[in-house]
Write a structure and sequence with these properties.
Elements lengths: L2 H5 L3 E2 L4 E5 L6 E6 L4 E4 L5 H15 L5 E3 L5 H4 L9 E5 L2 H7 L1 H10 L4 H9 L6 E3 L2 E5 L4 E6 L9 E5 L5 E9 L15 H12 L4 E6 L5 H15 L3
């Protein structure tokens, strides 16, 4: 156990990867530490939260965050992005257009879920749009570790990106394709008929021994992901 990470409120998963469960919406933020670069998976729900995550990440790693991966475009996963000046931002193909044209809708959704109007407006005005768009798979070289970004959706949204981190035990950041602290959220932008297939892709890339980090909740194993896949398949009548 790495006491320094634990004392900062982070969970150390492997030698290269850790995560934090943010308050209020229990959103998972991931951190992958390379020898040369640092990748953050989802930057939080507002600039205040993003700035807190940035400060903690810098204390833990001794370096600034150089890369950000958006797992999808919901407010609690993207609105903190502007707190990370100079970071290279990655997302699934099409997420850039969605965020560019949907700032007002994103702001309204954040307010409906309880974010203060002023914070939501500020974050939406300064919203960071992914510059690097992943259509299939993209390998990031962080120095000593190669991280795979995989466009595995659609499912929870039309732009679901997963992050695979090799190591003594592979770690898979799933975004909201997997949720542990409640039933998977199926909103109007979901593609439920293809969600089980997205989970099949997660499992094929991660394997049986991987750690699967859900968008919300505790870290799970492959058996949990398979069970959630079966639940979704049954719920929406797909094989």
């Amino acid at each position: 156990m790495d006491v320094r990470w634990e004392e900062a409120g982070w969970e150390r998963l492997t030698g290269r990867a850790g995560r934090r469960r943010l308050p209020v919406w229990d959103c998972s933020v991931g951190l992958v530490v390379g020898d040369d670069s640092v990748l953050l998976v989802d930057p939080g729900s507002c600039l205040r939260e993003g700035a807190q995550v940035r400060a903690e990440a810098e204390r833990l790693t001794g370096r600034r965050v150089t890369h950000i991966a958006f797992t999808h475009g919901h407010f609690d996963h993207v609105l903190g992005g502007a707190a990370f000046s100079g970071a290279e931002v990655y997302g699934a193909v099409g997420l850039d257009a969605l965020l560019t044209t949907g700032r007002e809708e994103l702001r309204d959704d954040a307010v409906r879920h309880g974010l203060a109007d002023a914070e939501a407006s500020e974050a939406a005005d300064l919203l960071v749009v992914p510059k690097h768009l992943v259509s299939g798979e993209w390998t990031l070289e962080l120095g000593g570790v190669q991280v795979l970004l995989a466009n595995v959706g659609p499912g929870h949204t039309r732009h679901d990106l997963a992050v695979f981190v090799p190591g003594e035990r592979e770690t898979v950041f799933c975004g909201d394709l997997v949720e542990e602290s409640g039933e998977p959220s199926v909103g109007p932008d979901a593609t439920p008929g293809q969600w089980p297939a997205a989970l099949d892709r997660l499992l094929s890339l991660g394997g049986e021994e991987a750690l699967y980090v859900p968008g919300h909740g505790a870290v799970v194993d492959a058996a949990f992901v398979r069970a959630q896949r079966a639940t979704l398949a049954g719920r929406f009548g797909v094989s």
